[in-house]
Specification:
Elements (H helix, E strand, L loop, with lengths): L7 H27 L5 H20 L5 H5 L21
């Protein structure tokens, strides 16, 4: 697991991904409460956004500053982790 001392840029970007996932969850809850016609499509869009941030955080947890600073993160970082001992969401 990376840390702030050994990889300060990667640490900051990992923190950003987690904070943005948190904001995404808050936004989802707010929209669900306020929109009486909230649809499954809207729910899916929110969830994809949240999962993307959580997946990048998980898949990038051991990455270097250089990997996080790459102009384009590996697309696989947005995929649901295959190495997590968690049930798949599907």
């Amino acid at each position: 697991m990376l840390n702030e001392q050994s990889a300060p840029v990667a640490w900051a970007l990992l923190q950003y991904e987690l904070a943005d996932a948190q904001d995404g969850i808050a936004s989802l809850l707010r929209d669900m409460a306020e929109d009486k016609e909230f649809s499954e499509i809207e729910f899916g869009i929110h969830m994809a956004h949240i999962y993307g941030h959580l997946n990048r955080a998980w898949n990038g947890r051991n990455a270097t500053d250089q990997q996080w600073q790459a102009a384009k993160l590996p697309a696989a970082w947005s995929n649901f982790p295959t190495d997590a001992d968690l049930p798949a969401p599907f």
